[in-house]
Amino acid sequence: MKYPMTKQGAEALETELKHLKSVMRPQITQAIAEARELGDLKENAEYHAAREQQGMVEARIRDIEGRLSNAQVIDVTAIAHTGKVFFGTTVEIANVDTDEAVVYQIVGEDEAEIKEGKISVSSPIARALIGKEEGDVVPVRTPGGVVEYEIIEVRHQ
Fold it and tell me: Where is the Transcription elongation factor GreA/GreB C-terminal domain (predicted)?
């Protein structure tokens, strides 16, 4: 099964993967070699620490490769602007009651980072917004009750 991912999200994972393979792997291999030269491996803390770090890096490499192989990369900038909200778009919404405006980009689950304004496509707000257009008022069910948001602008960034 393929999972949606923005072009920026895929590029960030590819950059991290390249760093892990070309920088971290050789550093850890060197650290293990140096620790082996120190003698008895049973009581060699440097060796065990390097091996543990190696395991974590290799696990992260496998994780990233798996995510990229199952990703359906969507480049929202290549899609014609229609004013509709869909995966990858950046949406400015305003709370109808308070006029408080926020901007969110709808991204894949692995990319979501609320502090950066990136919300998961499966989040309640994103699910409510998808398919709607600029100017629509959208009710969103929250723990505190239903909140209505007006879609101010939809951007393809």
Answer: 82-155
Residue 107: CB atoms within 10 Å: 27
Q: Read off the tokens for 9.
A: 């999200």
CA distance 155 to 157: 6
pTM of the model: 0.80
Q: Is the dihedral of CA 15, 119, 109, 68 positive or negative?
A: negative
- CA gap 27, 124 in Å, rounded: 43
Residue 117 and residue 104 in contact, taking contact as beta carbons nearer than 8 Å: yes
Question: Running DSSP on this structure, what letter comes out for residue 89?
Answer: -
Map out the domains of the chain with their CATH numbers.
3-74 (1.10.287.180), 76-155 (3.10.50.30)
Q: At what angle do helices 25-36 and 45-69 cross, to 10 degrees?
A: 160
- Mind listing the pLDDT tens digit for each residue in 81-90? 999 999 999 9
Q: How many CB atoms lie within 10 A of CB 104?
A: 21
